[in-house]
Amino acid sequence: MNEDGLLKMSELAERSGVSAGTIKHYLREGLLGDDGIVRTSRNMAYYPPHFVERLQLIKRLQEDRFMPLRVIKGMMDADPERAAALVELEDRILERALDHGARAQRISAAEVRRRYDVPENVLERLAEIGVLSPTSRGYDPDDVAIVAAFSRFRAGGYDEALGFTVYDTVRYLEALEPLVQEEVRALLDRLAGKVDADRAAELLATGAEPLRELVGAMHSKLLLRELERQRGRR
């Protein structure tokens, strides 16, 4: 480090945990910019201390989130502080969700089969297509709610005899995935840098139940609207 607090390449690599070769690659790609760099000769330069955190952020975005460098560069060019806040927010929300999932009371596969009239082979197929995600400890609360709903469907006559199978649920997965991706993107975009990570996680948790009710009510309205539209076409 020189008297102005600037770092040599070796010092920058040591502090950031990013190799000198990777740092040079990031520099060539324009991910760090030129602001604050002091070049003393063709082969010698000093770098500002804030490059340490920026390098660590870029590495996390590249390795943990599998972002291409062109996307990362766009984030760095637009607002690096916001990008850092976004990463912190994502990590905190995921951390709380995983902690909640780890503490959630799971129900054994045997108990689920006892409670609900759903054949074991149906449960296995629901897991195969990604609708359920049981572990050796059993089913989490969301899994149990899905099994309960599937049991009620079957009790109401939605069974294989009429052509209803577990694969009908794939339509809902395919429809919900892009919706959830957009929901998460919008949520993070609105909260990053505006509220702290703990508050954001609380908002996500408190909004889960109203969101279920909203989606259910909107589905009912759309179902009726489509039935009326189909009748009008006939």
UniProtKB/TrEMBL annotation:
Q: HTH merR-type domain: which residues?
A: 6-78
Q: Which UniProt keywords apply?
A: DNA-binding, Repressor, Transcription, Transcription regulation
Alphabetized Pfam families for the sequence: MerR_1
Source taxon at top rank: Bacteria
Which InterPro entries does the record cross-reference, listed alphabetically? DNA-bd_dom_put_sf, MerR-type_HTH_dom, MerR_fam
Name any one GO molecular function. Answer: DNA binding
| PROSITE patterns documented for this protein | HTH_MERR_2
PANTHER family for this protein: MERR-FAMILY TRANSCRIPTIONAL REGULATOR, REDOX-CYCLING DRUG-SENSING TRANSCRIPTIONAL ACTIVATOR SOXR
Q: Which protein is depicted?
A: HTH merR-type domain-containing protein
Origin species: Paraconexibacter algicola
Q: What is the lineage of its organism?
A: Bacteria, Bacillati, Actinomycetota, Thermoleophilia, Solirubrobacterales
